[in-house]
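Let us begin with a simple case.
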Amino acid sequence: MSAAPFEDERSSPGDTAAGFLAAISLTASAVAIFYRPVRLAPFAILIALIAAGMAKSQRNSRLAAAAVIGGTIAWLVGMAVAVVTSNPVY
């Protein structure tokens, strides 16, 4: 019986941190749609850009890219929602 060698594909600590930062950024972006988008969305985008720089694996780099795009969309939608509903933007 022939068996292929087991390859352990563990991610590095930086890669794990990038995944967590991207998840935090996505959460902050979702909150920014409904609560003060000028305060939250730029920080969410900044955290997503840091995560994109830290990510080495393809999985976490795609997650970080989604966080950057999600933060940008959340800022645009959050600003529109705040203006339409006459809520404060900052």
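The second case is a distinct protein. As before, the sequence precedes its structure tokens.
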Amino acid sequence: MNTALFIAKRIIFNGSQKGRISRPIVKIAVWGIALGMAVMIITLGVVSGFQREIREKVVGFGSHIQITNYDSNNSLEPSSLQSNPELIQHILRIPGIVHVQKYAIKAGIIRTDEDLLGVVLKGIGKDFDWNFFSHNIVEGTYFTVSDTGISNKILVSKYIASKLKLHVGDKFKMYFIQDRQQRQRAFRVSGIYETGLEGFDNVIVFADIAHVQKLNNWDTTRLAGYEILIRDFKKMDEVCTRVNDELVRSYPDTVGQSDSTAVSALQARTIRELNPQIFNWLDFTDTNAGIIIFLMLFVAVINMTSALLILILERTNMIGLLKAMGATNQNVRRIFLLNAAWLIGQGLLIGNIIGLGLSFLQLKTHFLKLDQESYYVPWVPIHLDFVEIVSINALTLGVCLLVLLLPSLIISRITPVKAIRFS
């Protein structure tokens, strides 16, 4: 058996540790690592969960990628494009894309007997994916769109319903301006949704796309654009690039001397490009998480450095005897580093139990609530990533052991004669 490992085990599992000055210091170091690890796991879970919740809500309103006319930008009165089923079939063959749906938007004013409010009507077709809104409808239900007739049902947010005192089944009129003329449409509330994103909830209502087409004097083949849903958010930019390549082939506007200078009459943009302020804000939360992790690692290193120095000083006689018997500095250092690794492992195990336990409890019970108006979610969201958890454990163990190499160098300064006399 390896000598260093054998002696390290005897030190670790020696039952006669009572009375040693290192015992309380070692316990403090272990619990310091445990609490630090618990904080890091919870921090990563909360940051990842918060980013995921907000990202899914923004994507729910606008999908991952949008195809529009090149000159439309973010206008509430975009120019139309011609629907192209063949193009959609080509786009659906791109790896990572799971769904494509058409849409159109138009600004209008809802007027009731008591009040009025400016909103954006988003017209959707029968291909609209209701999966996101089906989980966020608080009253009523969503409507269906068919080819046989125009539906007069509409989905409004809880904010708009509260502002205008609307309930499921109520009727109201919306007014629009087209070609300097006022037009109106009558709707009936089918359902009321709530996502917590004020920038969207306060203005967006959903209705049959046929209303927008008629209001804009479009035929049934014209629309404002397509929305694309993908499988993996991390590959969004890559998929968007491939969609733009497909648009160049299908909708060429001008073509240069090489494929790299080809320009399409249409453009595909990611939801990050369309809402940079939201995603920049979410990216900033990664910085906060990084600061917390750095502080927890710093505390863990300080605790373990103190514990290791105390262990070395407390066992100076043993170090002298080992050196007198022919042990090298490297062998003796290995004994104490193995001891430190065991203590760090104890702290990591306890920290993982605490951190994962509290995280799973929050996932199941949502006992920590939030003000949705301020934080956009009604409770503290948690998303646990196995790779992130393993990485933070490995990082903590690696950093602590690497830093502990420095205080362990004190062993090389201990001479056998002085160490054996040390008391």
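The longest strand covers residues 97-111. The CA atoms of residues 6 and 335 lie 9 Å apart.
Keep these points in mind for the review questions at the end of the chapter.
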